[in-house]
Amino acid sequence: MDNTVARCAARTAFLFGAAVTIAGCSTGPTARIGMAANTPVAELGQTNFSADEAEIYTLRPSDVVSVTVFREPDLSVQNIPVGADGMLSLPLIGPIKVEGLTTGDLERTVTERLAKSQLIDPRVSVNVMQFGSHLVTVEGSVEKPGMFPFKPGTRLTGAIALAEGLKREGKLSEVAIFRQTKDGIAVAKFDYGAVRAGTMMDPVLLPSDRVIVGTSGLSLFWQDLIKALPAFALFTRF
């Protein structure tokens, strides 16, 4: 009986010590105080990525807009999607190429065309109701892989949050973003730990980006060990 107790005590002491050691390695990167990095790393394929949000938003296919003509309900449309060809069809005016236009550009274009149609002093307001073009695919070692809508200005950290975070085997240093460019599909690599610490830029997503998180079999072993520890051992560092 005494030998059994001694063995259990020794095992607990070993696991307790392992927990402290592992906890020291798994607390994650320490955030750097000050301005976060915002410079792309060329050797990692980040040249076409930016840490800055676009100052103006231009319409894309699948975006949903409302065009309101003041005191002219018959000429107003609500929640109409931009077609795959970038066109929008409006009463009295007909089809307009809106892809690449800002809401201000579209307001001016509609106002000018309505004025030419003999409407006196037309006043037009355009609002984006849904950023339907903004979809990101998140795959790999995340809790909830899938395709998610996102708002303009969302970053890589936001995409991973939409997928409910990394799985326990997720490898922070192996995060890739696939992006469509005029020359084809480009791939950039990011170290998510460095991004969270502020030492690597957190890139702004573009529509149709694809994020893939890599895995590490080693982390599975450590996570399984932690899971087997007594509950009190998990909180030794807090």
What's the total helix number? 5
- CATH architecture descriptor text of the largest domain: Roll
Structural class: alpha+beta
How many domains, as an integer? Answer: 2
Give the neighbour order of strands across the main sheet. 7-6-10-8-9
The radius of gyration computed from the alpha-carbon positions, rounded to a whole number of angstroms, is 26 Å
- Ranges with pLDDT <50 over ≥5 residues? 12-26, 231-238
Instruction: Count every beta strand, where a strand is a DSSP E run of 2 or more residues.
Output: 10
CATH topology of the largest domain: Outer membrane lipoprotein wza fold like
List descriptors.
alpha+beta; Outer membrane lipoprotein wza fold like; wza like fold; 5 helices; 10 strands; disordered C terminus
Describe what you observe in this structure.
With 238 residues, the protein is an alpha+beta fold. It folds into 2 domains: 32-53 and 133-217, Outer membrane lipoprotein wza fold like; 64-130, wza like domain (wza like fold). Helices cover 27% and strands 26% of the residues. It has 5 helices and 10 strands, in the order αββββαβββαββαβα. The protein has helices at 2-26, 103-116, 156-162, 192-197, 217-228; strands at residues 64-69, 77-81, 87-90, 94-97, 124-130, 135-140, 146-149, 170-181, 184-190, 210-215. A 5-stranded mixed β-sheet has the order 7-6-10-8-9. Mean pLDDT is 84; it is low at 12-26 and 231-238.
